[in-house]
Inverse folding.
C-alpha cells in the first residue's frame, strides 16, 4: 500500500475546512492537504443554489455555488493541495489516516489532522416515523443535490417536515425546480427559524401546519399521502408524492465514532478543548461537526481561527497541558456546548495571547429558554449573561481562561428559566 | 426461442430464497428450469427482510419435523458451497440468554432439544461466563446456552447466488410474470401468465406469502392459509457493532423466537423482530411505537446501546400459517409441489428444502443427468468479511459514503447478469443508501447513475 506524508491534512472541503486550509497557507505552512470525498470541493453551499452566502467572507451577497467556487479558487491560488474523490476511511493514532482513492487504499501520515466533516440532517429512519417505505422520501440535502447538481426532479407535490432555516431552503429549492409543496409541517408552536420566515410559505401559497407532527407515510411504490396529527389529536391526511425531512442536523462523526478519539454524547461530535484539539492532540476539529448547525460564514471564521491553533501546535507553541478540566452541566435544557474541556497549562501565563483567540463557549438549547446563563468555577461565577434563546440558535458565553487556572470544578448553569 | 415456445421440466413460481434455491438444485441436477416472478425484482417478498441468521436449528421442534430437517440440511450445504459462490460467513455464535429464574429453568429443556436435533456443541454457561464473553450484556442476565454454530450471513447475496448459479447453468428467469391460472393435462402444465402461456412438466410453488393463493389457483385447494406475520427491525449505527460479537437470543415462546440482538454482516447491530399478525401480505409498514419498544428492549439487553444512534428501520412479512411446521407436499398425480409456510427460518433452510423436494421428485420416478461440470459464479463481495471494492484499484471512487460503495460496484451491478429493476434491488446488491445518512449524500449521484434504468425513476430531468 502506498504511503505519503504531509504537515497538515484537513478532512472535508466545506467552508470550515477550506478556511482552515487557506489560513494555514497564509501562516506559512508548506504542505496543506485538503481531502474531499466528493468529486468537487465546496461542501454543502455547493448545492444551495440560493443566497445569502459570502457577507462575512467576501462582503457581498453570493449564491451558495458561487461562494463555494470563490473559496475553492482562493485555496488553489494559495497552494492548498486538493485531494478529491478521496475518502478517509480510518483515523489512526498519531495522525495516521487510511484513505480510499479511485486507485485503491492508501496511507497518509500527517503531523496534524483537522476534521471538518460537517453535519447532515436526520433521515426518516432515525426519526422512527411510522408507515411504509416508498420512493420519494429524502432530506433537504439530497433534494438540493438532485436539483442543483443533477437537475433531477424527485417529486412534484411533497410535504416538508420541519421549520428550521433549512426547511425554508427546501421550499426555495422546490420552487427553483417547479415543485409545489403541499404543506410545511412542524411539531413546534412557532417556526424554528426567524419568525419572518413564516411569511415565505404563505407568499408561495404553501399551507403551514404548526403544532403538528407527521404520524405516518402511506404509499407502495411512491409516496401517496402522509397523515399528520395536531396537538389536540386530530389526524388529517395530506395526499402528496414525496416527503422532505428537513433539519434536525447531527454531526457527521462516523469516522470519529469508529476511532480512538473521544465523542461528546451531547453534541455528537468529538470532545475538544479551547484550541479545538481532540483527545489525541494530533487531531483538531472545527465547523458544524462541533455544533450542528451554523451558517457557512460562522464555520468559515471558525476554520480560520482553528488554523492559528494548528499552526501553533505544529511549531510546539501550544502550551503543554498540565491537566484537563471537564466542563459539567446539570441543566437538561442545554442540548450541547463546545469546547467540553479546558486544557490547563503549567503556569497561568501560558494561557498567553493564543487564549484570546478562543471564541469562548458555544451552546445550543433544546427549546426556547430564558434565564441567567452562568459558568461557575468552584462555585464562583466567572462568566454570565442574560439569556433569551430560541431553539436551534447559537448562544455564546465568554470563557475567561485566566480565571480558571486554579479551578477544580467547572460547570454551566441556567437559572430562573421560564418557557417563552 | 421465446419462453412461450419452450417447454421446461420444472417451472418454479417465485424468486424468494426458496424459489432461488429450488431453481439452483433442479438445474444442477440436469432439469430444464424456468423461474417466474410477478415483481420486477427478484427477492421482493418475504425473503427481503429478515434477521440474516444462519440457524443450526438447535431450537426447532419437534425433532424430525420438516423444518428441523431442512434447516439442518440447508445449514450444512451453505457451509459446503459458500466459498465457491463467494458467500460470506460471520462465525459469531449465539448466546440464548435467560433473564430470570423462570427462563433459566427452561434452558435444560432447550439444551436437550438441541442435542436431540444433533447440534451437539451447545452447552449451558453461567452468568459469569456470559459476562466474561460479552461484558456489555445487561447485569440482570441469569444464565445462557452457548450455541457456537449460529452464524450471520448476507440475506441478499445468498439467494442471489443461488439464482445466479441456476441461470448461469441454463435456467431461465422471467420477471414481471404473474401467474393468472393453469391447467394440467395428466402429463404437463399450461400456465397462463401476464407474459402469455408457459408450458412445463412440473410446477413447484415457492410463492411465499402467496403460497395458498397459488395452490388454489392451480390445484383448487390448499392445505394451509397464509397468516402474514410482520416483523419490524431497528438497525443501529456501525459504532454499536462492537457491543456484542455474539448473536443474543431470548428464550423462545410457543409462537415466536423473540427479539434478537445481533451483529450484521455489514458491520451494524440489529434489534428485532416484532411478531405481529396482520391481514396484509404486502404492507410491510413500521410503527413508531413498536420501534421505540424494540429500542428499549435492545437497551435492556445491551445498556450501552443508549449511546448509539439508529441507522435504519424496516419490516418484513413472514408467511406463517395455522401450522407450526413447514407445508412441503408433492402432489404426484398433478406433477405439482407446494412449498408453503416457510416462515422465519427460510434463509437457513432453503438449500435443504430444495434438496428434499428434489429427492422426493426422484423417488416419484423422474430422472435427469446431473451437470458434469456446473459453473460456479461468485457473487460480488460486499460484506465486512471480505476485501471491499473501495480497497481495490480502479474502483471509480466512492459514491455511497456511509457504506463505502464504489462507482464500479454500482455500474457492475447495473450491468447484470440479473439487472436490478429498482433502487431497492440495487441496494440489496450493493448496499447503496443502506447507511446512516440514508441517501443524504448519494441520492443525487445514484439518480444520475440509474437514470432511465428503473421503472420507478429516482428523479425526472427538468
Amino acid at each position: 500500500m502506498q504511503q505519503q506524508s504531509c504537515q497538515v491534512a484537513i478532512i472535508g472541503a466545506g467552508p470550515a475546512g477550506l478556511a482552515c486550509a487557506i489560513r494555514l497557507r497564509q501562516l506559512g505552512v508548506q504542505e496543506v492537504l485538503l481531502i474531499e470525498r466528493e468529486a468537487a470541493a465546496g461542501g454543502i453551499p455547493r448545492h444551495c443554489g440560493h443566497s445569502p452566502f459570502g457577507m462575512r467572507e467576501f462582503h457581498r451577497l453570493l449564491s451558495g455555488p458561487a461562494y463555494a467556487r470563490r473559496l475553492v479558487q482562493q485555496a488553489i491560488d494559495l497552494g492548498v493541495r486538493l485531494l478529491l474523490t478521496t475518502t478517509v476511511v480510518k483515523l489512526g493514532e498519531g495522525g495516521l489516516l487510511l484513505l480510499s482513492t479511485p486507485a485503491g487504499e492508501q496511507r497518509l501520515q500527517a503531523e496534524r489532522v483537522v476534521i471538518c466533516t460537517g453535519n447532515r440532517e436526520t433521515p426518516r429512519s432515525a426519526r422512527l416515523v411510522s408507515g411504509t417505505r416508498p420512493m420519494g422520501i429524502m432530506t433537504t440535502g439530497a433534494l438540493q443535490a438532485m436539483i442543483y447538481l443533477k437537475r433531477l426532479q424527485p417529486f412534484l407535490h411533497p410535504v416538508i417536515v420541519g421549520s428550521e432555516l433549512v426547511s425554508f431552503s427546501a421550499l426555495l429549492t422546490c420552487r427553483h425546480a417547479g415543485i409545489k409543496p403541499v404543506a410545511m409541517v412542524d411539531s413546534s408552536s412557532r417556526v424554528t427559524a426567524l419568525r419572518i420566515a413564516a411569511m415565505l410559505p404563505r407568499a408561495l401559497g404553501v399551507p403551514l401546519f404548526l403544532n403538528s407532527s407527521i404520524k405516518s407515510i402511506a404509499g407502495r411504490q411512491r409516496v401517496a399521502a402522509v397523515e399528520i396529527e395536531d396537538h389536540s389529536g386530530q389526524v388529517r391526511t395530506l395526499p402528496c408524492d414525496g416527503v422532505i425531512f428537513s433539519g434536525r442536523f447531527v454531526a457527521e462523526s462516523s469516522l470519529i465514532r469508529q476511532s480512538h478519539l473521544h465523542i461528546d454524547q451531547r453534541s455528537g461530535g468529538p470532545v475538544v478543548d479551547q484550541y479545538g484539539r481532540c483527545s489525541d492532540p494530533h487531531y483538531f476539529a472545527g465547523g458544524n461537526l462541533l455544533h450542528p448547525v451554523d451558517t457557512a460564514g460562522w464555520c468559515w471564521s471558525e476554520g480560520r481561527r482553528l488554523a492559528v491553533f494548528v499552526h501553533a501546535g505544529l511549531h510546539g507553541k501550544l502550551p503543554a497541558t498540565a491537566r484537563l478540566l471537564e466542563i459539567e452541566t446539570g441543566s437538561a435544557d442545554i442540548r450541547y456546548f463546545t469546547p467540553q474541556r479546558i486544557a490547563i497549562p503549567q503556569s497561568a501565563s501560558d494561557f498567553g495571547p493564543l487564549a484570546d483567540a478562543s471564541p469562548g463557549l458555544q451552546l445550543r438549547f433544546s427549546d426556547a429558554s430564558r434565564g441567567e446563563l452562568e459558568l461557575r468555577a468552584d462555585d464562583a461565577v466567572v462568566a454570565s449573561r442574560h439569556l433569551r434563546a430560541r431553539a436551534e440558535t447559537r448562544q455564546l458565553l465568554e470563557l475567561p481562561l485566566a480565571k480558571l487556572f486554579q479551578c477544580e470544578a467547572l460547570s454551566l448553569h441556567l437559572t430562573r428559566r421560564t418557557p417563552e | 426461442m421465446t419462453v412461450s415456445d419452450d417447454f421446461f421440466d420444472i417451472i418454479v413460481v417465485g424468486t424468494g430464497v426458496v424459489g432461488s434455491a429450488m431453481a439452483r438444485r433442479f438445474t444442477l441436477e440436469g432439469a430444464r428450469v424456468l423461474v417466474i416472478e410477478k415483481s420486477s425484482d427478484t427477492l421482493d417478498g418475504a425473503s427481503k427482510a429478515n434477521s440474516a441468521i444462519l440457524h443450526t436449528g438447535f431450537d426447532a421442534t419437534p425433532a424430525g419435523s420438516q423444518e428441523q430437517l431442512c434447516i439442518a440440511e440447508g445449514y450444512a450445504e451453505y457451509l459446503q458451497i459458500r466459498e465457491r459462490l463467494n458467500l460470506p460467513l460471520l462465525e459469531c455464535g449465539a448466546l440464548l440468554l435467560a433473564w430470570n429464574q423462570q427462563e433459566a429453568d427452561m434452558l435444560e429443556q432447550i439444551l436437550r432439544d438441541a442435542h436431540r436435533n444433533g447440534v451437539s456443541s451447545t452447552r449451558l454457561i453461567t452468568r459469569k461466563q456470559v459476562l466474561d464473553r460479552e461484558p456489555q450484556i445487561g447485569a440482570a442476565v441469569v444464565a445462557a446456552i452457548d450455541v457456537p454454530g449460529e452464524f450471520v450471513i448476507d440475506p441478499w447475496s445468498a439467494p442471489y447466488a443461488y439464482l445466479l448459479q441456476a441461470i448461469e447453468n441454463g435456467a431461465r428467469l422471467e420477471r414481471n410474470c404473474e401467474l393468472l391460472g393453469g391447467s394440467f393435462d395428466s402429463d404437463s402444465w399450461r400456465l397462463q401468465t401476464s407474459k402469455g402461456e408457459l408450458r412445463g412438466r412440473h410446477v413447484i410453488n415457492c410463492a411465499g406469502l402467496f403460497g395458498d393463493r397459488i395452490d388454489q389457483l392451480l390445484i383448487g385447494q390448499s392445505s394451509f392459509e397464509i397468516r402474514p406475520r410482520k416483523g419490524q427491525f431497528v438497525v443501529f449505527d456501525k459504532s454499536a457493532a462492537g457491543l456484542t460479537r455474539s448473536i443474543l437470543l431470548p428464550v423462545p415462546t410457543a409462537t415466536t423466537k423473540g427479539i434478537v440482538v445481533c451483529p450484521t454482516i455489514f458491520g451494524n447491530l440489529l434489534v428485532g423482530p416484532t411478531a405481529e399478525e396482520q391481514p396484509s401480505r404486502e404492507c410491510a409498514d413500521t410503527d413508531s411505537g413498536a420501534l421505540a419498544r424494540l429500542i428499549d428492549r435492545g437497551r435492556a439487553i445491551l445498556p450501552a446501546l443508549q449511546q448509539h444512534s439508529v441507522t435504519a428501520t424496516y419490516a418484513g412479512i413472514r408467511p406463517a400459517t395455522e401450522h407450526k411446521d413447514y407445508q412441503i407436499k408433492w402432489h404426484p398425480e398433478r406433477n405439482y409441489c407446494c412449498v408453503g409456510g416457510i416462515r422465519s427460518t427460510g434463509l437457513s433452510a432453503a438449500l435443504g428444502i430444495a434438496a428434499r423436494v428434489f429427492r422426493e421428485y426422484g423417488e416419484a420416478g423422474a430422472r435427469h443427468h446431473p451437470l458434469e461440470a456446473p459453473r460456479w459464479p461468485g457473487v460480488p463481495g460486499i460484506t465486512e468479511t471480505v476485501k471491499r471494492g473501495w480497497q481495490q484499484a480502479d474502483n471509480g471512487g466512492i459514491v455511497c459514503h456511509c457504506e463505502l460503495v464504489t462507482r464500479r460496484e454500482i455500474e457492475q451491478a447495473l450491468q447484470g447478469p440479473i439487472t436490478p429493476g429498482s433502487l431497492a434491488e440495487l441496494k440489496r446488491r450493493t448496499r447503496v443508501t443502506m447507511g446512516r445518512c440514508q441517501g443524504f449524500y448519494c441520492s443525487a449521484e445514484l439518480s444520475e447513475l440509474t437514470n432511465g434504468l428503473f421503472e420507478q425513476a429516482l428523479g425526472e430531468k427538468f
Notes: Residues 135 and 308 of chain B are 17 Å apart (CA to CA). The longest strand of chain B covers residues 196-205.
